[in-house]
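User: For my dataset I need records formatted as: sequence, then structure tokens, nothing else. Please produce one.
Assistant:
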Amino acid sequence: MTRFLPILLLLVLSVSACSKVEQAPGPYAMDPEEFEKWEIALVEMRIEKNEAFADAQQTPLREADVPGFEGLNYYFPKAELRFKTPLIPDEGNETVYLTKRKGETVPYARRGKVAFTHEGQVHHLDVFGPADTAGGDYLWLPFFDATSGQDTYPGGRYLDLAVDDEGLVDLDFNYAYNPLCDYNPDKFNCTLPPPGNKLPFAVEAGEQSFHPGH
């Protein structure tokens, strides 16, 4: 019997590892109090961002767009597009090269992957960080979806992520924001999401294009 123990242990570990990789939660459930706090925080973030963009000293907008600026364009909040999901780490922190809008490439470290379930389908997205952390570290998720080039910026949108004490990230597409190229393509040269980070459905949450239809 003992000769089978290593095989049984290997099977248990394999099942455990697969279960971890396949964790793909559905929308994060919020009680009424938590939902209210979430919605208020989202609205406050949008107000603060609009105020920053209206400030000629710090705005990324083109000079000609500042005087008539009335605010950025957003979808209405959608709680069903918020997920709490594990970050499945990339053991090797593989260096990958992502393409910028004007053609050159830049290195990033692939930090792992997140998975979530939307309308019965499991989706996976790669998460990146800086290849060189001397200037600071962060987790960054660029993505395309079915709204890209329609209601949202053709070059995709971004999400900033953080891992909590339980190893989960708050994958909230209501916080999706545009690359700076959407506001001033002459000044900025933004990094495009990799082809593998393209969602097949319309993520109708977060920021819309600053120039709809462009």
